[in-house]
Amino acid sequence: KVMEDMVERGYFCAVLDLCTNELTDHVLGGYHDAGPNRLEAAGRLGIPQVVSVGCVDFFVQGPRSTIPEKWSTRMMYYHNPWFTLVRPTPQEMADIGKLLAEKLNRARGPVRVVVPLRGMSYSGLPGGSTHDPQGDNALFRAIREHLRGDIPLIEVDAHVNEEVFAEKMIEAFSEIIRQPKPKSKD
After folding, report:
1. In whole angstroms, what is the distance from residue 124 CA to residue 102 CA?
2. Exposure of 146 by Cβ count < 10 A (0-12 exposed, 13-18 middle, 19+ buried)?
3. Contact between 112 and 72 (Cβ < 8 Å)
4. 97 neighbors 40 (Cβ within 8 angstroms)
5. pTM of the complete model beyond 0.85
6. Which residues contact residue 9 at a Cβ distance below 8 angstroms, ignoring those fewer than 6 apart?
7. How far is CA 78 from the centre of its chain?
8. Strand order of the sheet with strand 59-61?
9. From residue 170, how far is each of 35, 102, 126 by CA, in Å?
């Protein structure tokens, strides 16, 4: 919510948004819910943006002992005594991918989407407690299917925490901010 407010107030001339976990928390009722307008302010204002899906593969709940029964059988990562990260189902991941694409499709400025095909969080790595390639692929497929055709989708064969992925984000950001700004109709 704070970032959206800062974008609305004109603090940014471009946005590089690596971690969009608040979308998952909004859809599934997690602690880090930024509200229904996450990923909309920059697009509405025509501000260039490069967006990724870091940490979209979990939603945040409280201590292990407080996890509601409806989520008790899901894959989880016990982040610390106060937060447990819960893995969405493949269908929920597809819904989140579609939502992300729909929000970015409404953008009035340039957009790039960069996705890390080998994982979005530490616990989502192979061998991690929330590793779920089927869920990851459901997210990526939904983004591919629903993202506007003129918005570049850059798929990187790396994990979100790898240097090559960071380099692709920076490359996309450098590219987008060098684009000429549309002339005002005034």
Report:
1. 25
2. middle
3. no
4. no
5. yes
6. none
7. 21
8. 59-61, 84-86, 76-78
9. 27, 24, 26
- What does the CA dihedral 121, 125, 129, 132 come to, rounded to 10 degrees? 90
pLDDT of residue 11: 76
Residue type at 149 in one-letter notation: G
Which residue type occupies 160? V
Q: Which residues contact 106 (CB under 8 A, 6 or more apart)?
A: 40, 43, 44
- pLDDT tens digits along 19-74: 999 999 999 999 999 999 999 999 999 999 999 999 999 999 999 999 999 999 99
User: Residue 82: which of 67, 97, 99 has the closest Cα?
Assistant: 67
d(CA 67, CA 64): 6
* Token pair for 153: 């989708």
